[in-house]
Structure formats: C-alpha cells, structure tokens
C-alpha cells in the first residue's frame, strides 16, 4: 500500500534559523518560505536527491504545530508522510485493521493540493503519519 | 552537501508489533529482523519506493536507543540519516560552521558497513541527524 516517502516534516520555532542550518551548515537546497494560511504553517522545502524535508514554522492562531513546539521548544520531527495510490481505499483498509484516522476520517486537501489524512500516533509506533494520495 | 535521505529510524519497544503495523496495517514490504549486536539494536528494514524506514528494537545492555524509549515508551522517530559523498569533508565543514559532532568526531562503521557520524540534536533543530558516506 505504501509507495514513496513524500516528506519528513520538522517543526521549528524560527524558520530563518532553520533555513540557515539546512542551507549553510548542511549545504542543502532550500526553497523560499511559502505561507500556507489554510494549514497554519509557513513552510520551506529542503530538496534531497530522492525526497524532501519540510521545515514548518507556526503561522497565525491555533497552528497545528503550536502544541508540539511547546513540548519541543528547540523543534523536532513532527510527522512523516507516505504516498498511497488511493487514499479512500487506504483509509478503509486502515479502519478495517482497527487503526484510528484523525479528524472525521474524510480526506482533506493538503499543502500540496492533494488529498491527505493523518493517522493516530498511538496506533503507529508513536509517530504521526500523514498519507497523501500520489 | 546532502545527497539522498538514506533512512528514517523509528525506535520501537516491540519489533514484532512494529512489523505488524508496517506489514499488515500499512501494507509495506518489510525484511526479516537482523541483529546488530555491535550497534545495540535489532533492525527491520521497511522498503519504500524511494528510501527506507528502519524499525529499531534495543538489543543487549546499554543499547543506544534505550534512553529514548524510556522517554518515549510507545516509540517514535529516533533519527534521520542523510547521505554525503565524503564524510570527513562533511565533518570538517560542519565543525567549521560551529556544529557539534557526537563522540570523538571520528567516523565509525555504521550498520550498513559505511562510515557514519551523528550530529548533536541541539545544533540541528531538535533532531538527531546521522550522516552516512554514500
């Protein structure tokens, strides 16, 4: 069912400082910051040869990464995103296996314009998993 | 400097249960468990289309993931591994930029038989970063 690793998302308190770490210290290719007000984050894409890392800074009130940064003020890996061919089929399989899908279980349009779902960390080895339709 | 994302490592308290999550619930391809006594872990490789996830269970006394699992008993993402062409050149660049390399700063032979280094999470957005020579 799982296809590519779409991205690893790292929540950071200061996007400029995070860009300096990846661009200057680690010598990676980074994008310009992109505000995603519908998702409560500003994102910078780090392009690796086979996948990407997304650096996420909270944007606006009630950002979905605000609580995580309160617990992890220096930042940390927030979630991991895997691609699936058919997100509704994936959801139905996961629910049949007893796994919990966050929210109302209906796919939403993610930051890349594709349908996404988030899965409960307690059912996935303590990791927040995003599924994105490829 | 950064090339491919080599792997994302997830520390887990129970490797059989973790394999069931990735193989049965998520429908991924998983390897047989492989004991790595020199590295204090037993590992299962999850093969994705573009990279891999490594599920790590502590092995023996003083496993390097034991303390992490005490803090995160359900498991969690332990580190992220990026490939570099030349690990000594990478280390020298990082040190010149003021970043801390863990241990004595000399590359060790990692679980894939290649030279590796670990970088200090406090200098890398709260994430433990492994560099592996490609």
UniProtKB/TrEMBL annotation, chains A, B:
One of its GO terms (molecular function) is methylmalonyl-CoA epimerase activity. It is an enzyme of class 5 (isomerase). InterPro entries: Glyas_Bleomycin-R_OHBP_Dase, MeMalonyl-CoA_epimerase, MMCE/EMCE_epimerase, VOC_core. It catalyses: (R)-methylmalonyl-CoA = (S)-methylmalonyl-CoA. Gene3D superfamilies: 2,3-Dihydroxybiphenyl 1,2-Dioxygenase, domain 1. The keyword RNA-binding does not apply. Signal peptide: none annotated. The keyword Oxidoreductase does not apply. Residues 4-134 form the VOC domain. GO terms for biological process: L-methylmalonyl-CoA metabolic process. Keywords: Cobalt, Isomerase, Metal-binding. Its EC number is 5.1.99.1. Belongs to the methylmalonyl-CoA epimerase family. NCBIfam families: metmalonyl_epim. This is methylmalonyl-CoA epimerase. It comes from Kaustia mangrovi. The gene is mce.
